[in-house]
Task: inverse folding
């Protein structure tokens, strides 16, 4: 057997002025691969994340933290009680330990994505090297400051965690990839293709989270008959799923599916969109001019690949277009900041062309969980990895994009 070439380790790139250390140092990068792999959900890991949760919740209650509800969600996810609940999913008697060093390359479209990716790596007992998004966010900076405070209180974790930023650099990526035993890539298809040009060690593992899209399935009769309180809860949840991150997340729905007759659809959609528009006004949601132009451009692109009927709305905060059928190409023309393509169906199988390989999340309202489980088990489809109620599209889980992150970022020690 011809031995595979080992990736070259050029530590000189750690002096590259493009490389900025947000937490840790170049000396710690050198030491990261030597850190021992811990057991998953180890007591010391839970102690660290419990402290992180408490300090982050404290930051989320002050200024400017209270402006970012996602901080509280992250703090809740890291509560000891919640992590112990998660750990019970893996109480199968197997010996699971971290893989070693995990190199995470994280995206800018979801400001706290890096934190959830990091936490999954930490829970698995790994040392972690995280490439942060090039664009700073206030919420992200608060998380980094909180991590720094945690490391002051628990310095034994300092050698296990480094956060960096750098513009595109094949040399830096090559070094980090050569050092790791697992590489986690978040980003667009082109970004992932570029990162993959850097070779990994022979036994290294890789996870990639590429471009995806999401759907929202509404039971028209349930929307039409909802009380004012129920409708308010529904549109608030939908707002959180979509406008909170301007539909930048892969899990934010851009395609709407209405189940029901034409008359039921008209009644339900009219009521739903009017309530959402009122909420946008109440929240003083602002649409930058550049985004307004981008929405119009995307709408024209969608019309070029699919028969669309533009639906007039009060202003540009919500842009709607109804599709005659679920043409797969339309999923590549999805917009952001309030552009929605709608499809009415009287048979759920009519939405299957939109459930292709790139379909990640399906949010729903007005259906029983058992109904959707039966539909999904009865149809072979390459996509749809998550099915959650409206309002939970952005909720992070340790099973993401069809991957069980605990299993993927750890290894099993077999004893017979």
Result:
């Amino acid at each position: 057997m011809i031995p595979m070439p080992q990736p070259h380790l050029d530590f000189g790139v750690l002096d590259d002025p493009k490389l900025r250390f947000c937490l840790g140092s170049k000396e710690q990068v050198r030491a990261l691969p030597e850190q021992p792999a811990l057991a998953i959900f180890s007591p010391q890991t839970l102690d660290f994340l419990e402290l992180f949760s408490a300090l982050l919740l404290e930051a989320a209650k002050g200024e400017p933290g209270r402006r970012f509800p996602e901080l509280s969600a992250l703090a809740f996810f890291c509560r000891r009680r919640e992590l112990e609940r998660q750990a019970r999913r893996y109480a199968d008697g197997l010996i699971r330990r971290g893989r070693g060093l995990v190199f995470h390359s994280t995206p800018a479209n979801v400001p706290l994505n890096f934190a959830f990716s990091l936490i999954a790596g930490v829970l698995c007992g790994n040392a972690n090297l995280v490439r942060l998004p090039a664009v700073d966010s206030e919420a992200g900076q608060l998380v980094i400051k909180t991590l720094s405070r945690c490391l002051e209180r628990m310095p034994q974790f300092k050698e296990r965690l480094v956060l960096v930023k750098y513009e595109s650099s094949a040399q830096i990526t090559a070094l980090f990839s050569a050092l790791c035993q697992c590489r986690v890539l978040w980003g667009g298809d082109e970004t992932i293709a570029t990162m993959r040009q850097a070779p990994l060690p022979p036994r290294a593992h890789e996870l990639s989270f590429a471009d995806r899209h999401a759907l929202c399935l509404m039971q028209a009769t349930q929307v039409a008959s909802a009380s004012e309180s129920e409708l308010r809860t529904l549109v608030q949840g939908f707002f959180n799923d979509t406008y909170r991150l301007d539909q930048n997340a892969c899990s934010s729905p851009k395609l709407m599916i209405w189940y029901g007759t034409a008359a039921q659809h008209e009644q339900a959609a009219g009521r739903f969109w009017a309530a959402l528009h009122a909420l946008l006004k109440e929240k003083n949601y602002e649409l930058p001019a550049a985004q307004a132009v981008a929405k119009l451009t995307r709408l024209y692109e969608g019309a070029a690949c699919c028969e669309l009927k533009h639906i007039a709305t009060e202003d540009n905060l919500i842009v709607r277009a109804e599709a005659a059928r679920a043409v797969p190409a339309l999923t590549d023309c999805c917009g952001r900041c309030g552009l929605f393509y709608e499809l009415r169906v009287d048979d759920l199988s009519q939405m299957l062309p939109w459930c292709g390989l790139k379909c990640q999340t399906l949010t729903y309202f007005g259906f029983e969980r058992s109904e959707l489980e039966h539909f999904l088990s009865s149809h072979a489809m390459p996509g749809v990895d998550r099915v959650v109620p409206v309002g939970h599209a952005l909720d992070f889980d340790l099973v993401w994009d069809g991957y069980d992150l605990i299993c993927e970022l750890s290894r099993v020690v077999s004893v017979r």
Notes: The mean pLDDT is 93. The longest strand covers residues 213-219. The chain is about 40% helix and 20% strand.
